[in-house]
Amino acid sequence: MIEQITSCKETYGCILVEESVKNANSGVLRCIVRGLLEKYDRVVCVCLSSTPSDFAASFSAEKQSKLVCIDLFSDVDGWRETGCNLSQFLSNPKSSLTNFSSKVAVVIDSLSDIVLYRNVSTACRLIRRLLSSKESPKIETVVGRVLTELHRSDDDEVVEKLRYYANVIVSIEKMPVGSKVVTTVEQKLSSGKVTRKRELSKVSTDWHVYDVEDLIVSSKPKEKLDPTANLTFKLSLTDSEKEARSRVVLPYVHQHLRPESDSRASTASGGKIFYQPDEADDFDEEDPDDDLDI
Amino acid sequence: MEEFSNLIGADLLQTGLTSISVDGNEANFVIPHYVHLLLKADCSVLFLHLEHSLNHYSNILAKMGLNVKQFQEQGSFIPISGFQFFGHDLDEEYHLHKLRSLYEMICEHLEKLSSARSSGQCALVVDNVSILPILGFSVKETCIFLQYVLALSRDHGPCVLKIYVTSIDNELQTLWSWLQCRSAVSIECKRLTTGYCKDVHGEIEIHRKSQPPNTRKYQFQLTDKSVKVFAIGTSSAVL
């Protein structure tokens, strides 16, 4: 499924890529961008967490010619008065796209920064506005990257709200070793069905996903580990020992609950208490617990 | 066993952000080591010190054999004191415009350093970023300021930022995560979870954002004039 998503042969609407700080360099986002560059004439990248040159340098010269980067990294709040800042972009996101007539895709790196500098509703409105706009050029695909650690202390449930707007959610889990990456892809189909798949794959240096293996979550109950196995001494009981154990009469079980055959044996062999009262003892024949109704 | 300086030397002059998180006083050696190595590598340093006074760093660098005043007179070391910048109006509520003024001061000094040297890089070192939220700036305002600082330093040379992080402060954790995703090299200096040990004073985890990413863990021991770094479990007490 990850191969299908990164090849971008179908149109998915909004793709949300969830990463953590440790696996932020997994390359999955760049694989998706590579797929978009092969499908569309223009891919617009809104750069907030990296410079446009750093982002574009990941791709070949041929693909870089199709990549249009909007630099919000250098002047996010308008201090340098370059004319390209976050407020201007959010007020009219398609202002820099008016030169393009064909369909385009937009990549936002990263949505977490938009949430941090503004709020989650601004980020959600941006996605909706980009996808639903009827003005030319038509934006068919929006890809947004989210760093989950930046929002773990938020009460706004940022990631959940962004997931609501996404048609495809690619969650990148901790990378095992080397260039292997574990992804969970959740796709919301137009019929309402949701498909989910967890896969182990590798990412090549030219941003292709290959060697994809399904990681199936087993529905069978896990076999309980037997702690008494593989020991040098015996901890378990044989059948005869279990039977003998079941026959042991517990000392404090009431007389009437014991089997009849055992009750006589217990009276014969049980301990007796011999009490010899002194002259000073106030010996009362009455049972002090007589009034208890147990 | 090797010196801490050798460990960080390979990434020293690479353009980009090196971010360092510490959770205790044991890791106060990191920033002076960076300043020492940068000045020795003939790199100009603009040093924004928010946590300690310049005398504190001068004394540590003097132990390492570096005369900071000499570099200051040559014009290749410029300190900016956070105490002087923020200390005048303690009743004032700090807003983003105050950080913008600080950014403009940093711009001005970096331009001076660059024009004074026709070749060579100008590094920006900040100790320590977590002072800004403590002074009252929000995480958003601190991130905007740091975004501008990063964009500025990319044109001049390496940038080294230190931040103090605790598990109970969500704002500092968020700030550290934000810095990590922008760093080419991120270093975490932590205390030992098992408690005090006279032979091992803490752990260092160095994460390099290469393809594929590379993470190495070490333990360190502070001596009077240096920091020894070794693989986990190979301290002199064990060997």
Question: Could you name the key traits of this structure?
Answer:
heterodimer, A: about 290 residues, alpha/beta, 9-stranded mixed beta sheet, 10 helices, about 20% strand, B: about 240 residues, about 40% helix
Descriptive report:
The complex is a heterodimer of chains A (about 290) and B (about 240). In chain A, strands 3-2-4-5-1-6-7-8-9 form a nine-stranded mixed sheet, with helices on both faces. Chain A has helices spanning about 1-5, 30-40, 50-55, 60-65, 85-90, 110-115, 120-130, 160-165, 240-245, 260-270, and strands at about 15-20, 40-45, 65-70, 105-110, 140-145, 170, 180-190, 195-205, 210-215. Chain A is α/β, with parallel strands linked by helices and about 290 residues long. In chain B, strands 1-10-9-8-7-2-6-5-3-4 form a ten-stranded mixed sheet, sandwiched between helices. The mean pLDDT of chain B is about 85. Chain B is of the alpha/beta class and about 240 residues long. The longest helix of chain B has 21 residues, at about 95-115. The radius of gyration of chain B is 18 Å and the shape is globular. In chain B, helix 6 packs parallel to helix 8. Helices cover about 40% and strands about 25% of the residues of chain B. Classes of the chains: A alpha/beta (about 290), B alpha/beta (about 240).
